[in-house]
Design goal:
Blueprint lengths: L2 H21 L3 H13 L3 H25 L5 H22 L4 H21 L1
Helix pairs in contact: 1-2, 1-3, 2-3
Length: about 120
């Protein structure tokens, strides 16, 4: 792998880890767009790569936040269990949606989230 690509992946990983630890975000909101725009990944490959990376990021962030007493295990399970059904449905749908629609959906979500954060 070329050195500049490896450095970019390292920067993406470091940013995603920092954002996950601080804000609970980093996957779809950070890794996916950076993989697409910075490294030229296709949306589906960026999503899959991000999801694999999130396993380690989420585990370490949850452990770190747990050490500070910031983890509510009951709510985490209540959110996590039904989210599995959403993951299955979303992954299945993603394979059927045209690439352009995925790009527009991601862009729309990011704009809506940015507006919501600014308005708050």
């Amino acid at each position: 792998m070329p050195r500049d690509r490896l450095l970019k992946l390292g920067a993406i990983a470091t940013l995603a880890g920092a954002y996950s630890g601080m804000l609970g975000v980093g996957g779809g909101g950070l890794i996916v767009p950076l993989l697409i725009f910075w490294l030229g990944y296709e949306e589906r490959a960026a999503t899959g790569t991000s999801l694999l990376a999130i396993i380690a990021i989420a585990l370490m962030a949850a452990i770190g936040q747990g050490l500070y007493g910031n983890v509510d295990l009951d709510y985490g399970v209540l959110i996590g269990i039904p989210a599995v059904a959403g993951v299955i449905a979303g992954t299945t749908l993603q394979q059927r949606v045209p690439r352009r629609a995925l790009s527009l959906g991601l862009a729309t979500l990011m704009i809506a989230l940015a507006i919501e954060l600014v308005v708050r």
